[in-house]
Amino acid sequence: MSTAAPAADRASLPIGGEDSIWNALRTELQKLGAQLTSRLLAVVCIAGPFAFAAVLKVQSGTPSDALFGVWVHSSGFAISLVILGFAGTWGFPLIAGLLGGDLFASEDRHGTWKTILTRSCARTDVYAGKLLAAGAVAVALTLLLAVSSVLAGVLLVGAHSLVDLSGVLTAPGRLLGLTLLSWLLCLLPVLAYTSIAILFSVATRNGIIGVLGPLLVALLTQLLDLIGKGVGVHLLLIGSAFDGWHGLFTAHPFYGPLVISSLVSVAWIAASITASWRILRRRDFLATTVSRAPDWRTPVRIVAIATALVAVLALLANVGPAGDTAYRLSAAIGEEFNNVTLLQQELIGRRVPAGARLDILPNCNRRAAKAVGPGDWNCTLYVYLPQASSVPFEQTSVEYDVSVEYNGCYKAQSPPAFIGGPTMLDAHGHSVTNPLYIVYGCFNTL
Amino acid sequence: MAKRYGATTAVDGVDLAVTPGQVRGLLGPNGAGKTTLLRMLFGLIHPDAGSVELLGRPFDGLGGGALEEVGGFVEEPAFYPYLSGRANLSLLARLDAGPSAAAVDGALARVGLERRGEDRVAGYSTGMRQRLGLAAALLRSPRLLLLDEPTSGLDPGGTRAVATLVRELAAEGVAVLLSSHQIGELERVCDAYTVLRDGRVVWDGSAAELVAQAPASAYALATSDDEQALRIAADQVGVRAGRSRSGELALAVHEGCLDALVFALGDARVAIRRLDLLVKPLETMFFALTSDGAPLEELEPVELAETVLAGL
Description:
A: alpha+beta; 2 domains; two-stranded antiparallel ribbon; 14 helices; 54% helix; elongated; B: alpha/beta; 23% strand
């Protein structure tokens, strides 16, 4: 079949190729810029950290369950890192969902597929333009949130030193670099969540499912993080990639989880993009006026696949070597207790010789039937203090209740009667955070 | 070219060509395959068999270069409601990688939307969206225009304006394929027709051929002496006459036979007080080609009019 007209004497327009993708990208960016959701997201990313920091500043409490949470009144970088932690749990999936989840489905809602696909841009270019636009805006919003959170912390609290995840006081300059690097490392999983949102959007043609899809994946990740001792399955989940930066904030940085989770993110991106393109490429854009009977097959299929996937992941959660072991936790918390104790001594004005070390024997046990895995642990730190008497040393012990996560990060807290309250007076009489009260740490689970 | 949905064949072996400067009407009852055909031409639907060639370029069904210089829309044009009409056109112009801001202004002016261009499309009436759809089609200076129900939602003035615009474009050498249910409107602008039924082409030819082959047209007649007029009409070749339920005269007249009847009535000093065309040749032809009812030649004039009008 042909519809033919003789060639007219007019110049051909540049069609296809990079120009075409670039035009599609600019078109999508223009549309995103005009939408209320995108603007609200930008406002939240800019103003949100300042509001968060301002609220923390006027109250004495701290979000102590979050990594670095107890330090939010002491260092502005802690605020940025706490926000990064929250964003990795819910914020990034929400941004990805709101951006990518409705980008394709909105064309179905407005009936505009036929409008854009009947222009000179190929379907491939339209898809690529949308994909790039979602990715670019997701990256831009992440960077906006990063800069805003650092600025909010530095301006409202100050660019002060911060105790890292090994109990070592880190200088502001290094902290700034590590903090920004941590945000940058989250870009890959952000893009992975965005790709998943796009897949939901293309597959279901429903904006609500597209937006909620990444949040559902995040929720499943959270639930799976609570079970199983094996470290392998957790590293295959996108959410785990938001934890990769933890290894940078230790005295002996470890990069294994970071590298693996980054590769996993790339795999999720490739799989989601491939699947969504195959669906869109094969799709017939039928009449919009034809009212279709509700098709329950797709949602039922998705729920069935998701349920099966979760079940398999739950079963596999115990497969493979355990990440959280008594040996690793004991080594990490023993080293960290040494560091924060010496730091506390310095804060109260005592001179600590360079290279000084306490003689510490840590002993950690999991408060459950299984001896390994995330959950509640108890650590007893036996400290041997040398003394000039007939007894060569004095033994004292410190008890810590330790909450260990699947990723090797932990929060340890001891009764105030033993190590003092959340704050203490330094050598100058100022009230400062007691580094021994709550101890955050991370160890390599690989 | 063929397209099937399960056991239903939407398009089956359709083959058509539109020449430059020609306005070809695409006719067919609901479900005949008109919109499916147009969607396949635009690459919105993948054909199960066959191929599409637009302006001499093969089309793989995924859009892009093959749609260069092809404009139009299927069904009601759709736009982004949160953007203005002008912003929508600018956005589409960017996808075409060509037309400038001046072209956007020109397209808006050509469809009479220049004063509402800055308004959000969410506030547009159906007719305004239809006109914006035409502007979007004109934006790329098409050589081939594919229009699906372009006058849907337009008032009579807007309908006439679209008809005029289509004729102007054809005069400029644009090939136009126009699908519509409003057969009366098609008659004003089309040079040729393709009639679809159950996904197949059942008639294809020029407007003159269609009128020549059309069954009798139906008229309502009021005269100074209806009884005598009835007798005179009964004697005319190509004319059948009868009375409606309300007693009015109704005629079934073949093409070219009306003049003789009018002269005969004048010779008999029967004054014609009213002569209304109830069913046009295109309508009777369309009905004859697309319905399963009794042959129109066997119907009384009144039944002919009622049957055809009810079937359209």
